Amino acid sequence: MTVLDEIYQEDRTPIPPGHPRILSLANQKGGVGKTTTAINLGTALAAIGERVLIVDLDPQGNASTGLGIDRRTRSVSTYDVLIGEAPLRDAVVSTAVPRLHIATSTMDLSGLELELGTTRDRAFRLRNAIEGLNVNTAADDVDYTYVLIDCPPSLNLLTVNAMAASDAILVPLQCEFFALEGLSQLLQTVEQVRSTLNPNLSIHGIVLTMFDSRNNLSNQVVADVRQFMGSKVYNTMIPRNVRISEAPSYGKPVLVYDLKCVGSEAYLKLATEVIQRERELRTH
């Protein structure tokens, strides 16, 4: 029995209109670039004028570390938020990037499922916290236009909370042999969440990561994914780039670490494409 099968389904009330656009970066496979994309897409969106909150929902806390937030300073984390001991605004800290904030994570998150047990609203803790953020920070002039949720690499209560709170899923997909197999599993999960917890959930897009044009396998994966998913695949691909790999060790997004590298250029293009898709959605 999966987490989804066990969760109570009484409350399917949609998030009120006027909320920020909430996107979960999700893939059940590890090492596909979820955290890297959360950090750098968030930075790129902020760089072109959006007001962005990243919610670090991975117990490893790599998104927080990658934005230079020391583990010793994370006195309030998303764990405290999800168990109901703190509002989301208390876990939010500023980053070195203007207009980019992050709700930090700690290893305590790994025990969340045991903590919440069979609590009725356990799948909606994050959704409710984001609603509270909109209400309670209005006086502080915090008006996020995007919330990006960095999910752990598994289907557990954390991922379910992210999907239940989100408008759409953004899927980082590594250009490697088992990519389509992992994608198929994720699409099944999204469909299950849509039918049980969040009827408005959709796939925003699939971003191909770690692309190497010199590698025949990479090119074949790109062709297969585009054939399988069509227009859901973003035109922008994130290349394999040493500067992207180096940046987290300095606690910086790649756009801050090296703005002119090909990785930075790719994430700026991706941010533009994400915003363009949002405009198209609003006009339909």
Order of helices and strands: HEHEHHHEEHHEHEHEHEHHH
Output mean pLDDT.
87
CATH superfamily: P-loop containing nucleotide triphosphate hydrolases
Number of helices: 13
Point out poorly predicted stretches.
1-17, 136-141
CATH level 3 topology: Rossmann fold
Number of strands: 8
Strand content: 15-25%
Helical amount: 40-55%
Topology:
Elements: H1 3-6, E1 21-25, H2 34-47, E2 52-56, H3 62-66, H4 78-82, H5 88-91, E3 92-94, E4 100-103, H6 112-116, H7 125-136, E5 146-150, H8 157-165, E6 168-174, H9 179-196, E7 202-211, H10 216-229, E8 233-239, H11 242-246, H12 254-257, H13 262-283
Helix pairs in contact: 2-13, 7-8
Provide a compact summary of the structure.
With 284 residues, the chain is of the alpha/beta class. The protein has helices at residues 3-6, 34-47, 62-66, 78-82, 88-91, 112-116, 125-136, 157-165, 179-196, 216-229, 242-246, 254-257, 262-283; strands spanning 21-25, 52-56, 92-94, 100-103, 146-150, 168-174, 202-211, 233-239.
